[in-house]
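Key result, reporting period 2: structure in, sequence out.
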């Protein structure tokens, strides 16, 4: 196009002519993209490429053929859609048009080839998740896993068993609910169903096991004095009043994250023994009965009910008997008990020990009536050099009362089984024994019975001195060697101070004479791991074992004499070592190794 500018006539020589060139608007070109082959159910992206001088365009996508789909936005350069799930393959054709407002609208098309659905590969599956065990009041999450090529599916949760609960969302793969706080032990069952509209509906179930937490309190196990009853015979030295009997209180206390049962007691039991003729005969058959009793025999007669500390005719020579009571109930030697007020801490959840912890003299636990439990020893040895150490239940068998106990420094205790406590607990051997007490490590101590008529069996056995080839014997067949390690017979023996012969008579602290048979001394025993391996009623090196109902626990042990009577069996209550860790506030501590030379307590 030519334009003239200026003034004057055409003949004017000074006139100027300006020519301007106007660019032509080029029509845009577009490319709808390469054809694609996709799987059924997959996400597809369409993409148009536009070449144009003008950057302003109006875009419009339309589907020309195939199963109808929904584009995310038909006015975008790159809309997306989900390929249909069909049993046969098909082509979807899409056309895109672009208008720049100046030139003619341009179009292009693209073909999306959709594969037929692979019905085998897209088989629908659901997993409702693992079963759970929870307590009442717990917020529970149910989470299912769905396996399917098709992401378009619906889920539905329903409850099929147990107390009704409310699900937060029954149509979501993950849902929650709260277990009712008043639930008892029960199982809640939930079923999830999944439907993808193609395959058959699939289902799976999950169980939520509700268990009411066991009461960690042991208050129903301890013999608690709820009436402030006092002993009729053992009195307080300062007031002259009777001492409170049994256990005064039980409480739970948490210290540094550890929960304890705290037992408060003065250590005086309330034993009432009905005297039998067998017991009278046993008392009168004591080797030194003529000098043990004031009248040369007990004053108790069959049918009497003898309370703890009642006078049955003994000549009591120990401390406290004339001042705080008990004269005539204990034989010569042991002191009469006094109040031994204590708070004892037992961890509610004992921890298995990772170190060797020998138990020594003094308390190693409490009976459920508050009286103390001592271990196997009396602090004495044959030559007083720590070799051939006395077993208290043997060497002190004539130094205990009719309930099998006596005191040291006023602390009444048992080294072995007591029939008096068994009577209180109703333990008659017709079932597994109840708990008789707790060790300092927190593990319970059950009575002697494993089941009806079956005793728990100690795996500690006497050495075989009869053969020089025995792993546990000595070359001369006598007590001339000790075990290198009583827990490992393969280590053999080592020479030691000679002990008494097996037919030799030894004299006890109470001047009773006893034959030092094999089994009289601690050093006569070793742990036979083969017995422990038998399982069942056989115990481990700690005099303990585990079962599903009671968990890990110790046993007081007896042996059957074969005539209807029973005798204490080494190691009597708990083993030589604690099975559990001792907390800093425990009633006992690990033995330093010096206790064998301490001598007996007064």
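The corresponding designed sequence is given below.
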């Amino acid at each position: 196009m030519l334009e003239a500018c200026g003034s004057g006539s055409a003949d004017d020589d000074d006139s100027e002519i300006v020519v301007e060139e106007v660019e032509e608007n080029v029509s845009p070109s577009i490319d709808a993209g390469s054809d694609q082959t996709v799987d059924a159910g997959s996400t597809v992206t369409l993409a148009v490429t536009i070449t144009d001088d003008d950057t302003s365009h109006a875009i419009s996508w339309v589907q020309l053929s195939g199963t109808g789909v929904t584009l995310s936005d038909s006015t975008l350069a790159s809309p997306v859609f989900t390929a249909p799930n069909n049993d046969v393959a098909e082509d979807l054709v899409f056309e895109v048009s672009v208008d720049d407002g100046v030139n003619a609208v341009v179009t292009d098309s693209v073909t999306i080839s959709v594969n037929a659905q692979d019905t085998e590969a897209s088989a629908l599956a659901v997993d409702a998740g693992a079963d759970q065990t929870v307590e009442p009041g717990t917020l529970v999450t149910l989470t299912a896993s769905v396996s399917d090529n098709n992401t378009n599916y619906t889920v539905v949760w329903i409850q099929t068993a147990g107390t009704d609960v409310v699900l937060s969302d029954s149509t979501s793969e993950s849902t929650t609910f709260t277990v009712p706080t008043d639930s008892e032990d029960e199982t809640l069952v939930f079923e999830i169903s999944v439907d993808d509209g193609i395959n058959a509906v699939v289902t799976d179930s999950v169980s939520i096991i509700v268990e009411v937490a066991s009461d960690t309190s042991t208050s129903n196990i301890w013999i608690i004095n709820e009436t402030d009853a006092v002993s009729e015979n053992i009195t307080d030295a300062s007031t002259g009043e009777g001492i409170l009997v049994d256990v005064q209180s039980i409480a739970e206390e948490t210290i540094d994250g550890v929960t304890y049962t705290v037992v408060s007691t003065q250590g005086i039991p309330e034993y009432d023994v009905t005297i039998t003729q067998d017991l009278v005969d046993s008392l009168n058959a004591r080797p030194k009965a003529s000098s043990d009793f004031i009248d040369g025999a007990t004053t108790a007669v069959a049918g009497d009910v003898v309370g703890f500390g009642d006078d049955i005719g003994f000549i009591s020579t120990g401390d406290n008997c004339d001042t705080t009571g008990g004269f005539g109930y204990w034989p010569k030697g042991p002191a009469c008990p006094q109040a031994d007020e204590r708070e004892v801490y037992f961890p509610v959840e004992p921890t298995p020990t990772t170190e060797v912890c020998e138990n020594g003299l003094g308390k190693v636990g409490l009976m459920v009536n508050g009286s103390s439990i001592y271990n196997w020893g009396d602090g004495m040895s044959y030559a007083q050099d720590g070799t051939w150490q006395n077993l208290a239940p043997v060497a002190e068998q004539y130094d205990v009362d009719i309930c099998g106990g006596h005191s040291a420094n006023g602390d009444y205790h048992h080294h072995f089984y007591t029939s008096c406590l068994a009577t209180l607990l109703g333990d008659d051997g017709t079932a597994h024994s109840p708990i008789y007490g707790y060790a300092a490590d927190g593990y319970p101590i059950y009575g002697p019975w494993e089941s009806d008529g079956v005793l728990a069996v100690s795996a500690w056995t006497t050495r075989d001195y009869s053969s020089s080839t025995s792993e546990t014997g000595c070359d001369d067949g006598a007590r001339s060697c000790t075990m290198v390690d009583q827990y490992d017979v393969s280590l053999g023996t080592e020479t030691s101070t000679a002990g008494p012969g097996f037919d030799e008579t030894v004299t006890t602290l109470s001047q009773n004479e006893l034959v030092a048979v094999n089994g009289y001394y601690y050093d006569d025993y070793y742990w036979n791991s083969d017995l422990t391996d038998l399982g069942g009623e056989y115990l481990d090196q700690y005099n303990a074992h585990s079962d599903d109902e009671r968990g890990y626990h110790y046993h007081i042990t007896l042996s059957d004499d074969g005539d209807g009577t029973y005798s204490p069996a080494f190691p009597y209550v708990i083993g030589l070592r604690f099975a559990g860790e001792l907390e800093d506030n425990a009633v006992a501590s690990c033995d330093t190794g010096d206790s064998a030379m301490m001598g007996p307590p007064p």
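Residues 277-284 form the longest helix (8 residues). Helices lie at 277-284, 289-292, 392-395, 419-425, 529-533. This case is discussed further under Risks and Mitigation.
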